[in-house]
Design brief:
globular, two-stranded antiparallel ribbon, 237 residues, TIM Barrel, alpha/beta
Length: 237
Amino acid sequence: MKFAGLVKQSLVDYPGEVTAVLFTRGCNIRCPFCQNTHLLLRSPRVSEPVLTMEEVVEFLEERHGFLDAVTVTGGEPTLYEELPAALAVFKELGYLVKLDTNGTNPTMLQQLIERGSLDYVAMDIKAPLDYRKYLRSCGKLTTEEFFNVRSSIRLLMEAPIKVEFRTTVVPVLHPPEEIEEIARYIQGASLYSLQQFNPSATLDTDYGAVVPYTRQEMQELADRCAPYVPTIRVVNI
């Protein structure tokens, strides 16, 4: 398996742990507010870096005692058939493993959970679980992918690992009542993170003119969600 990038140490991507962050290239949706536009296409440009699995393993072996975890993000990591084997290697090296996903591949998620390859999953929920609303936030999305998202939520609600659901909150896409609707849908989850939208370098340049919710407004959204999920985390830009 090849990776598009590496953050050698992060204190924010895996709560409570020091983690390396690996990026995969390629995504099956096109969120207009996406800021990782350089990772959307599966094939890299000639000038873009590629990390081999061998290079990653060498790095992780050298960092024993300094890192606790490996976080794999994207793009969408579950597009890669090689992902289960890669995560198994990270576990064999003694690391905690976290996966960031959009939830469109519940079959792989279930496989990874059953194999004990995951300690933490962070899944994005792009909108209330209505196909038209979800499509608006995703840019492109098949009905099969939409129902896969719902299946992934159900799977993760019962999973014996740490799970975080999260939404990047974009005012033109997410009025307060729709954020509350998402929280109601995942009622009983342990953690829901509300991420403040950042209008810089978005896939759809029109979103550069969208004014993010203020910190106070983000906190008010969190208060609306609190009756449904015991821990609401607000991530501000």
